[in-house]
Amino acid sequence: MNIDVMASVKEVNSHRIFKKNVVVIDVLRATSTIVTALANNAFSVIPVEHIEEARKIREDEKEGMILLGGEREAKIIDGFHFGNSPLSYMEDKVKDRKVVLTTTNGTRTIKACIGGENLYIASFLNVTAVIEKLIEYGKDIVIVCSGTDGQYSMDDALCAGMIISLINNMKNIITTDLGWTIKELYEAYKYDFHGLLKNCRHYKRLKENGFEEDLKYCLQTDIYDIVPIYREGSIQVLK
Ligand SMILES: O=C(O)[C@H](CS(=O)(=O)O)OP(=O)(O)O
Ligand SMILES: [Mg+2]
């Protein structure tokens, strides 16, 4: 099995994702938020790039099912129901609702990855469920780390490294030097994610903005057993 890895959204191009199973990761925090919303019975998550696009979807829809979520500079957007904290999408707050989500890095990356064979959403929260699905399908994989502001971000790389490490325990894989590097990174720090990430830009920015509980939450592994998949404009749980 061939596993390609992209360090940030800037590396995505149609040639590299063509006919591949693509996995998008944005641990802090967009894919953790999407997984949490769907695990808490949101009907779907609709990723969009722009704030105005999100507002328009809500204005245009008739059934009153839409909730708006997202951030700019890590803060909730004016007039939106939720920010990008996964902890806001729990209990019955999103049950049976469609959530339109716009974030700085994650939703932009998801949109950039449309065009592969399948597009899955991964985070530490559902990592094993996604791995099991990838192995079941057996196709070549492209892991896309969203990154932060177009740059490599260690939180996403660590999760990608976990995917590579666990698949490598079960199957022969071929990956890139970046792939082998982040596999080793994960294996060296698998018991100390916070220690590894504490000096990193994205982790520090969220901490400085008071999102310490989000950091703790997003760095837990396998609390959900769902595989979100993007199809025709929205993300739903794969049945
Ligand atoms: O809300 C987040 O965690 C980030 C925003 S920022 O990079 O911290 O400003 O967005 P995401 O798209 O989830 O990386
Ligand atoms: Mg991020």
From TrEMBL:
Q: Which GO terms describe its molecular function?
A: 2-phosphosulfolactate phosphatase activity; magnesium ion binding; sulfopyruvate decarboxylase activity
Q: From the UniProt record, list the reaction(s) this protein catalyses.
A: (2R)-O-phospho-3-sulfolactate + H2O = (2R)-3-sulfolactate + phosphate
Q: Which HAMAP family match?
A: ComB (MF_00490)
* Annotated InterPro entries: ComB-like, ComB-like_sf
Keywords (A to Z) from UniProt: Hydrolase, Magnesium
Enzyme Commission no: 3.1.3.71
* Protein name from the UniProt record: Probable 2-phosphosulfolactate phosphatase
Protein family per UniProt: Belongs to the ComB family.
What SUPFAM superfamilies is this protein classified in? ComB-like
Q: What gene makes this protein? A: comB
Which cofactors does this protein require? Mg(2+)
Entry-linked Pfam families: 2-ph_phosp
